[in-house]
Design goal:
It is built from 12 helices and 2 strands; from the N terminus they run H-H-H-H-H-H-E-E-H-H-H-H-H-H. The protein is mainly alpha-helical. Strands 1-2 form a two-stranded antiparallel ribbon. The relative contact order is 0.23.
Length: 292
Amino acid sequence: MAMTPPQALERDWRTPLELLVLGAIWGSSFLFMRIAANPFGPFALVEVRLALGALVLLPFLWRERAHFRAGLWPKLAIIGAINSAIPFLLFAWAAQRSPAAIGAICNAMTVLFAAMVGFLFFGQKIGPRRSLALLVGFIGVVVLATSKAGGLSVGGAVMAGATAALLYGVGVNLVRKHLAGVPPAAAAAATLSCAALLVLPFAATHWPTHAIGAGPWGAAIAIGVVCTGYAFLLYYRLIHRIGPARAATVTYLVPLFGAGFAWLFLNEPVTPAMLAAGALILGSVAVSQRAA
């Protein structure tokens, strides 16, 4: 009987484990935002997140600095705004107004929006099955937007989260078009650094005047160091090993961990509307991935 090579065995257990870890990390980011968003406010929280995430990745940018000619930096700044600064602000704003599960569920729309933007503006084929998946996903957003959590309407938070996912979808296509051939970790460091500089004036003028407790500070640091810096490294390593389509399956795990952590640590309820919307959105993402 033929023996499986040791390297193949290592890949077999390492890939699902890293996908699980990445799903948990990104799911936890919505828990941490929920803890830190009110004490910090969106601008200050996002500035901490971007700055720490960029610091984690700066060694990669320095190592690959020869790839970053002067003419590339305006594109990096635009991508940083679209793919990091504005979506992070929208999710932080939503975290002030809704349970953590809302943002985590909306985040799952990124894969669908990436396909839609690629079709509309970048000449990519979408096909009837993926078109149907987009429609079902949007129905899920409507179900979520018209629901209530804790007796409060979450429509504004859902729209903010869906807009953030749309911007992520635009960002993915911009990265494919303009940053092909640029080392991914270094590109992430550059875009995060640009985003941090863009948000800095707003953070400086909106920095909290009250003292911020250890809990919110710990949550903010975790978002920056673990959920942004380290998560980017892990994600790009997965893309390199198994390809972008398989790496994107982490999208299925983020809402599950996001809602689970919020229920476990913040006692936030998971409502039937959340479950229905999550099933519609994740089901549509699954169909979209199979049609890729």
